Task: inverse folding
């Protein structure tokens, strides 16, 4: 079984879209819990909630990685980031029985990709992404690393990366708006 998350309802055929890998693809996971992070985009959510006007493609934000055993780990880069990003957000998890996989060098745990349309075999409505993430955490299916649990080394890395990301996002006002709002506590000039 393959899983794909989307905020859009009633999709019968998933179509490839321009990806972060600069080609039209559809991303799936062979683990349902791994697609929960795609039910919300923190940047889009923040901008819409604050009335930030934006036309065009939203910058994607997902602070996660994988443990050595392949378990998804969601990292909070700022206090209460997981709740802030996912609480109250609903969406859909689409299931596909089969896909035509694309040969690729994309090295992401439990991910399958295709450049061809995929028929949906089932759909699950997720009422609250945050509650669903907490359920997966409590079941041991994912890990959560809270901001307060970060090492000094990791906090220093976050500070550096956010400053660099802000400087590089000159043509992405949505991303800059998000970074300035969420990371002003770091006492760095953005």
Result:
């Amino acid at each position: 079984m393959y899983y794909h998350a989307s905020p859009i309802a009633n999709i019968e055929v998933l179509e490839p879209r321009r990806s972060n890998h600069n080609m039209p693809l559809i991303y799936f996971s062979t683990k349902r819990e791994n697609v929960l992070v795609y039910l919300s985009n923190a940047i889009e959510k923040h901008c819409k909630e604050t009335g930030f006007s934006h036309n065009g493609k939203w910058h994607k934000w997902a602070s996660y990685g994988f443990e050595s055993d392949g378990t998804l780990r969601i990292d909070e880069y700022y206090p209460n980031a997981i709740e802030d990003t996912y609480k109250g957000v609903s969406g859909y998890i689409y299931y596909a029985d089969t896909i035509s996989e694309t040969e690729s060098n994309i090295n992401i745990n439990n991910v399958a990709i295709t450049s061809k349309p995929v028929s949906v075999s089932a759909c699950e409505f997720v009422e609250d992404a945050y509650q669903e993430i907490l359920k997966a955490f409590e079941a041991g299916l994912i890990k959560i690393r809270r901001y307060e649990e970060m090492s000094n080394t990791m906090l220093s890395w976050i500070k550096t990366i956010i400053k660099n990301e802000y400087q590089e996002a000159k043509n992405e006002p949505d991303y800059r708006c998000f970074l300035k709002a969420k990371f002003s506590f770091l006492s760095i000039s953005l």
User: Anything to note?
Assistant: The CA atoms of residues 75 and 145 lie 5 Å apart.
